[in-house]
Amino acid sequence: MSTRLLSAAVPHVATDLTHHRAVHGRLPDLGRGDADALIRTVADAGLRGRGGAGFPTARKLEAVAGARRPVVVVNGTEGEPASGKDRLLLATQPHLVLDGAVTAARAVGAREVVLVAPRTAHAALGRALDERGARDEPEVRLVVAAEGYVAGEETAVLAHVEGRPARPRVAPPRPAERGLFRRPTLVQNVETLAHLALIARHGADGFRSAGTPERPGTTLVSVSGAVARRGVFEVPVGVPVDQVLGLAGGPAEPVRALLVGGYFGAWIDGAARPALTDRDLRPLGAAVGAGVVLALGASSCPVAAVARLGSWMAGQSAGQCGSCVNGLAAIAGVLERLADGRGTPADLGLLTRWTAMVDGRGACAHPTGTVRMITSATRLFAAELEDHAHHGRCATCATAARASSVGVGRGAVAA
Predict the structure, then answer these.
(1) What domains are defined for the chain?
(2) What is the distance between the alpha carbons of residues 21 and 15, in angstroms, rounded to a whole number?
């Protein structure tokens, strides 16, 4: 397949309908009788969700197809701070996203699409909808996304659209059974739908011409931290991390560690260079997740970096359970003490005990995801944590403090 997600991209400009069609061609017509064939094509393509969970897209389509009064919700909330892929697609490829939304709606028989996106994306999306005109397409309604990390979880998105607080829930029924205003609902990530639009045009073989047999296709990866230039890059699934860093101009300094998968991801050693597939990352305790690679440079203290992330994530609690409200706050407090040089060796034991107590016990995935990231840090940065616990702030912290006071230091991690 010669065209991919960013084939029509013009830096910092939203692609208009004429240019979009010149690159991608028109979206094929899809009659009612063609819906089953499209879903089979998506299954053959092996497309999985690009929002983080990696659930097979065809199975989500099948779960809603044929239901009474289904609705499609496009999730462009992107609460993951280290990710910029969905915002990039919404800002520069609005027609590809809309094509995917229309394709999904036709596949499941929906006449209504709700597109949830940050306010900054609404101007480009509004212009794109005006260009498309009142054609025989599902009605598309734009909704400003809620802010916050947990606001991007699909049930939180539905709650927000209904006018309730954007809090996730884990109890049945699933959105496919009873979602937006109790209607069967297909919730799909922006990138996933953009891929769907290309599969509708080029078929399963076109999608499978990149990636691996187990995880075909391309994916968008957000790269930041201690690299020459941060950005979002489209790569075949399964490329080595080295290649991804190379697209970002390479490391700006020696890399101590990589945070892979986002704030719900895991830290891996900076010397490790796995392929970006769950099969290669799983032995390292990581996963592709939201498609994030964040490089921690040698000029940054990993204890201080993890403390910043832990504090930020604790502040993102949905406030629904003690594991999140009290547990994450307590864990963040230990990390802050260790980073500031006020910690003791006893704090290391508290960190181990409290992360184990919180893991798997939340009302949603937030506490478990957060402690997954923190636990990976306690393994990888054990020596640095011991040093902080016994000797206070390290030399790297002191150097970073001096550098930040004069505006220097590109390898830091900021939430």
Answers:
(1) 17-208 (3.40.50.11540), 218-297 (3.10.20.600), 302-405 (1.20.1440.230)
(2) 10
